[in-house]
Structures are given as structure tokens and as C-alpha cells.
Amino acid sequence: MNxxxxxxxxxxxxxxxxxxxxxxxxxxxxxxxxxxxxxxxAKAVAVTVDTYREVPTRPIIExxxxxxxxxxxxxxxxxxxxxxxYKLISFAQLEDKRGLQEPMPSQCEQIExxxxxxxxxxxxxxxxAGYRIGFGGGYYDRFLENYQGKTAALAFSFQLFPSLPTxxxxxxxxxxxxxxx
Length: 181
Fold this sequence. Notes:
The protein is an alpha/beta fold. The protein contains five helices and twelve strands.
């Protein structure tokens, strides 16, 4: 399958999940994430605020807050084709931008990438080597080019593939937290 076919397949699988199934399966992934040593050591965690076609992340954000971790969330800078990250202390600091929940810069402190310990990288599909197919904008590929911290991704079983088409600029995640692992 090419990237477009993989994206279409995974989106279809997400559309077949009920909200309850998505939450229940997500909870198992969250529990597996919380057992990872990189999670325990992390002081600042970057994560997107999920949409319906991703593993739920709001419970991760809430857990991090309870543990005293700093949560940072991305804001897409379309003109520069980059991501900027902002410290989030409340979901009230988010606004809807083109279907994404993004931080309002006027209400949040910008955080530099070297101050982020772990980035939970979103994606539609992942392979066993940690390569991913994202949503098609290349924003995380550019962000991760010179990021020195740990990276992780959470994947439902239908998001896992033996291998995926990759390009020279693709960067695999360090840790792939899988369903039923």
C-alpha cells in the first residue's frame, strides 16, 4: 500500500470504532505508557490534543498534570510550516483551528524544544521500526530533525504494519507503545 492507501485504511478503521471502544482501547494504551521508564522520568511532555481519528490523549494530559509534569501542546504555524509548543495548564487555553485543538498563544507560555523531555508523536500508521505515516503535512518530521529528547507513539493494533513506505527525511520514534503489548 502507498501512503494514501494506508491513511485511508486507518481512517476507515477509526470511523468504525464507537466512542466507548476508542476510550476503552485507549485506556489500555495509556496504562502501558505510564509503565514506561521514559514517562516516569519525564518532567515535560509534548502531546497533541486528540481528534476522533487518534488515540485519546486528554487522559494522558490529565494524568501528567496530576503527576506534576509540564504538558506542552503544538500550534501549527502554517506560513513557516513548523510547530511551536506551548505550556498548557487548562483545557480552557485551547481553541479550535481547522479541526485541531491548539493553544492560544496569548494565554500560554511558549516552550523551546530543548526543554521537552518526551514528545508523544501523533500518526495514523506505524511500523515495527518506529517509522510513521502522519497526517500529511510533514510538521513533525521537520520538528524532530534536530530534537534531542525521547519520542514515543501510541498505536491501536489496526495502526500497526510490518513496514511502511519511508522517505529520507522520515525519523522513527524511539518507543512504540502498542495495544496488547
